[in-house]
Amino acid sequence: MNPIESVPHELRIGEGPELHLGISTCPNDTFAFSRLLDAAMQPGESTLDTGGFTWWIELLDIDELNQRLLAGEFDLAKTSFHAALLMADQTRVLPVGSALGFGVGPLLLAAREGEKPQNPDQITLCPGEHTTAHLLFRLFYPDSTSVRQVVFSEIMPALQRGEADFGVCIHEGRFTYAESGLHLAADLGNLWENATKRPLPLGGLVMRDRHAPATMAAACDVIGRSLKSARQTPNSALPAMRRYAQEMDDSVLMQHVELYVNDWTEDLGSVGQDALTTLSEMAQQVGLGAAKLRFFCGETGI
Predict the structure, then answer these.
(1) What b-and-e string marks burial along 194-225, b requiring 16 or more CB atoms within 10 Å of the CB?
(2) How far is it, in rounded angstroms, from Cα 102 to Cα 90?
(3) What is the DSSP letter of 178?
(4) Residue-wise pLDDT tens digits, 55-109
(5) Which residues contact 144 (CB under 8 A, 6 or more apart)?
(6) SS3 call for 183
(7) Which residues of the chain have pLDDT under 50?
């Protein structure tokens, strides 16, 4: 059995009204939520303040998160911002928990050095229809190749086996693809930055707007305290990260955190909101079903 499959992907912690939370297994999420995950693994030993809620946490692949959120599941969840655009009429983007920044974009990898996506006979693997990685590929390489959606962890192995020509790589693989004999065809994040001069918004936390502002604020407080604690003592988050990581080397895990967890993760702010507005406008231009996002800005206003 894969050791990742043997660890619990469904956890509960706390007492009170239930909040169903979905997060991904990628290191930046398990880092940010490490205090909640550790407390849920050892509930009898935890003194964590859960904000008066029972947190029902599920850890999933990002594409499954997107699909289940679009299907109406979860009270709050980490989601690709592409998927968030499709459910903007039902959710609010929370100020905490986003992956946003410069130099953080997905990489377009090639099985063979020097090749570029240019005809429909070529195959590009993407990590899910509603991922921001797929959206970026569509924005910068429209109508270039045939696209197949697979679980993100299968993309690099499939390229190594020669089952596809290109793959959009997310998560830890961006640091190890060269060791796997793969080649960089394009940095999709650089293409975004050159086109927009803005940080790239990859994914973030959204919450159903059926919840009262006070509930949203309390949830943000719990998540924010977990994230701040992890940033203050990063090594303490390693056990939670290791449980779900595809790449088990601690230095690679921390490289991932350093890349995707920053001040915008603690507070999306006006810069983040502006970047998301730009993403929405670009998606609309290519007919990818975008809507205007709404942001949670505190108990007194949304």
Answers:
(1) eeeebbbbbbbbbbbbebebebbbbbbebbbb
(2) 29
(3) G
(4) 999 999 888 999 999 999 999 999 999 899 989 999 999 999 999 999 888 999 9
(5) 117, 118, 119, 120, 122, 124
(6) strand
(7) 1-3, 300-302
For 231-298, the DSSP string reads HHSGGGGHHHHHHH-SS--HHHHHHHHHHH-SHHHH--HHHHHHHHHHHHHHHHHTT-------B---
**Residue 171 annotated as catalytic:** yes
Token duo for residue 211: 């919840």
What is residue 1's predicted lDDT score, i.e. its pLDDT? 37
CA distance 109 to 116: 9
Q: Which two tokens stand for residue 14?
A: 């706390």
Task: Give me the catalytic one of 130, 171, 211, 256.
Answer: 171
* pLDDT per residue as tens digits for the range 152-171: 889 999 999 999 999 999 86
